[in-house]
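Support request from a user on the community tier.

User writes: "When I paste my structure tokens into the form, the page sometimes reloads and wipes my input. The last time it worked, I copied everything first. Here is what I submitted, just in case something in the input itself triggers the reload:"
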């Protein structure tokens, strides 16, 4: 048996006590390696581009360059690292801005070690992980018609993205918050088939993960209020 390499994590927080505490905590968790700590968003961008971590554990309210802008810069520069936000600021504006910028995880600082570890592992595997309260508010906002900073399309649905009818069904199930196992049960197919459809969806839509597919489903009218 060959062991998996550890998930390499960069911590970004302007408070030294928080940085040091997180570094100590993560250092005790199996499968995680802390490769650096950054004092603000600009420092996080510099270190992430140099060290190429798998995950940046990002605070939001930092001086000079905040976590949202740092996340946006990392995405624009093609950094391979995925961002997991860990912050005390969980109001809708911060949440939406962070997700728009490219964050794929969002936790509040009252999260326990097991929750942080799960989020790091899940996001490193290419999926999204949101605090349950954040996910609920996000879906409620989408259902209420929030645009999340994206222009409303002139037509309610896109018809030229090449999705098959089955792929559209899977997209709708994802947007409604169902897991792969639940989708498989509801559509009477195997989980392997669901994963294949999701891979096709990601390729055809240009989305990076499930969180992006949710937004795509609403923007193109596949899911409506």
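"...and here is what came back when it finally went through:"
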């Amino acid at each position: 048996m060959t062991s998996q390499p550890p998930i390499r994590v960069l911590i970004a927080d302007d408070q030294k006590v928080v940085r040091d505490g997180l570094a100590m905590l993560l250092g005790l968790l199996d499968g995680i390696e802390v490769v650096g700590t950054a004092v603000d968003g600009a420092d996080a961008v510099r270190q992430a581009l140099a060290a190429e971590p798998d995950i940046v554990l990002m605070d939001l309210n930092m001086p000079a360059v905040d976590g949202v802008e740092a996340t946006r810069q990392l995405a624009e520069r093609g950094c391979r690292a995925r961002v997991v936000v860990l912050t005390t600021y969980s109001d809708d504006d911060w949440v939406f801005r962070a997700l728009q910028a490219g964050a794929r995880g969002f936790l509040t600082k009252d999260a326990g070690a097991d929750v942080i570890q799960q989020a790091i592992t899940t996001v490193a595997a290419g999926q999204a992980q949101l605090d349950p309260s954040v996910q609920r508010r996000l879906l409620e906002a989408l259902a209420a018609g929030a645009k999340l900073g994206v222009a409303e399309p002139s037509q309610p649905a896109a018809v030229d993205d090449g999705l098959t009818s089955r792929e559209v069904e899977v997209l709708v199930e994802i947007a409604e918050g169902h897991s792969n196992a639940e989708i498989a049960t509801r559509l009477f197919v195997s989980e392997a088939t669901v994963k294949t459809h999701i891979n096709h969806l990601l390729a055809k839509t240009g989305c990076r993960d499930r969180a992006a597919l949710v937004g795509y489903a609403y923007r193109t009218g596949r899911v409506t209020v």
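Agent notes: The reload is a front-end session timeout and is unrelated to the input. The chain has ten helices and six strands. The radius of gyration is 18 Å. Escalated to web team.
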